[in-house]
Prior knowledge:
Blueprint: E1 3-5, E2 12-14, E3 16-19, H1 30-42, E4 47-49, H2 58-66, E5 75-80, E6 82-83, E7 90-95, E8 98-102, H3 106-120, E9 125-130, H4 142-154, E10 158-164, H5 168-177, E11 180-186, H6 198-204, E12 208-212, H7 248-259, H8 262-268, H9 272-281, E13 288-292, H10 296-304, H11 312-325
Parallel strand pairs: 3-4, 3-13, 4-5, 5-9, 9-10, 10-11, 11-12, 12-13
Antiparallel strand pairs: 1-2, 6-8, 7-8
Helix pairs in contact: 1-2, 1-10, 4-5
Amino acid sequence: MRYRPLGTSGIDASIVGLGTAAIRPGDTDDNGFVNAIRAAIDEGVTLIDTAPSYGWGHSEEVVGKAIEGRLDQVVIATKCGVWWEDERGSYNGVKDGKANRVSLRPDTITIEVENSLRRLGVDTIDLLQCHKPAIPPEETPIPETMGCLMELKDQGKIRAIGVSNVSLEQLDAYREAGDLATDQFRYSMILRDREADILPYCSEHNIATLTYWSLEQGLLTGKVGLDRVFSENDFRNTAGEWLPWFKLENRQRLLDMFAGWADLTEKYDCTIAQLAIAWTAAQRGATHVLCGIRTVEQGIQNAGAGALELEANEIQRLRDDLIALGDPV
Length: 329
């Protein structure tokens, strides 16, 4: 495993991190997730990303169970800003049956941090990220939000500050307002638009990046074949409407491209997923790659990508193939 700094925070974290959005009450195997997280930690993964809104506190509780007795081995990243306890903030719709709001007010953030500390079983959160930008009608000014986060940092409740899903303009405003360490956003081999703005900005200003969906919900593992049928309650069942790469004709194009990488998977004794993770982590400005896991095998496999370093000509070769692949039909 390789490790990189989280910006100027003084914290180093594994370049492969764990995403835990899939941990929800009722339809998941909590013990399976605990074992998967611990297996990844054993393989050198230190960065674990969660959020209060993942399972409405359940993900943080399961992560807390998994890291019990291992606090010196992990860097815990959680979030604030998605609020559901009362009417403060701006309405944000319904998720997993619960109406929620976006609130980046200092009073709700302070409550969220105390709740996260309790659920995770830690005294300090290594990285606290604003989950989403403020939305109308209650758009808390960024300096006000950042002032609260800086105060929490001074109090020792958090060690570093990050943002997620922000525009370039919002990112710049956060950086101007305080000590910004990280930015989290969606980025993958087949969704590279952030190369035009966010990635170069973060590289220039020494802001670490946490990319999510870098395996595109399994598409970039090479294991989603034409015969794969998703369950009725799996969002990928109808994802072709808004994730067109899941359409059968586009899956075939991806599988054909992966077949052309057989010499690289043989050379490095790696999987397509590991190749995709390694390529992502090799891009300018891309410092840390979050990967969701459900099983011990996935935890071990994803961690293995953290030691894979592609040669410069191979990185360019894969990019050339992606450019030739073009857009989904």
